[in-house]
Amino acid sequence: MKIWHQSFTVLDELGVYHDALMKHFKRIARPDTTIDLHGMVPGTYRTNYPGSDIRHAPLQYIHGLQFMTAAVEAQRQGYDVFAISTLPDPALREIRGLVDIPVVGYGESAMLTACMLGRKFGVLVFIDDFDDLISQNASVHGLAARFAGAMPVGFTFNDVLDAFQDPHVLIERFRQSARELIAKGAEVIIPGEAPLNILLAQNKVSEVDGVPVLDSLAAWVKQAEAMADMRKFCGTKPCRNGYYHNLPEMGRVDEIFSFYGLDRLGQED
């Protein structure tokens, strides 16, 4: 099985994170699963941190076009699953209506898995304004009644990168923030963006005061494997009726990508 992992970061600029992902996936995925890491095109952002852009809805929408072109390329190259590896799940609905291979989202996978571990889940994020987006996504996924809220974790993306060398202080700060969410009714904690998830998983942080801390990346991998298996062994495919699901003709997709200058984006990572 081949999974195309698509990050919202330029992975070439984040060596420690890239290496941590590879190590984690090797431990989590089945022996017959290959996960190939892909990131955004070099030069997409001003720095190695995407959050300055993706905290703004219109800029996140524009950057999401790279996910759409990457999904088409993944299908062309014969990947079994296209897997969005970022909490906001950019263009998830559109990509599912664009390609005919299974598509999984990091945020959606985490939310669905959390619902099997507790009655309500909460999400800790780097970007203050993301609580609006995460709340909206929970509603779109039909999980509004299971959502206890999202709140800033109290530190930044770059703090997490630095903490790969010495994680103890940051982990304690995470625990303090998790306790605030627990006090608001969260029975499962989703640790937001993937770099934080990796840091916690590496240090075996799986609960806070009896409340599970979800390894969202593990949930994402296992959902990707399950969707590919269901396709292979059961013939299970998504709905293809209606506005959001009916696949366009791929030749026309190519023409439109070319018209807007997007055809080069799926070729780079």
Automatic annotation (TrEMBL):
Family matches, as Gene3D superfamilies: 3.40.50.12500
Record Pfam families: Asp_Glu_race
Source species, domain of life: Bacteria
One function term, GO molecular function aspect: amino-acid racemase activity
Family note: Belongs to the HyuE racemase family.
Protein name (Swiss-Prot/TrEMBL): Racemase
Protein source organism: Advenella kashmirensis W13003
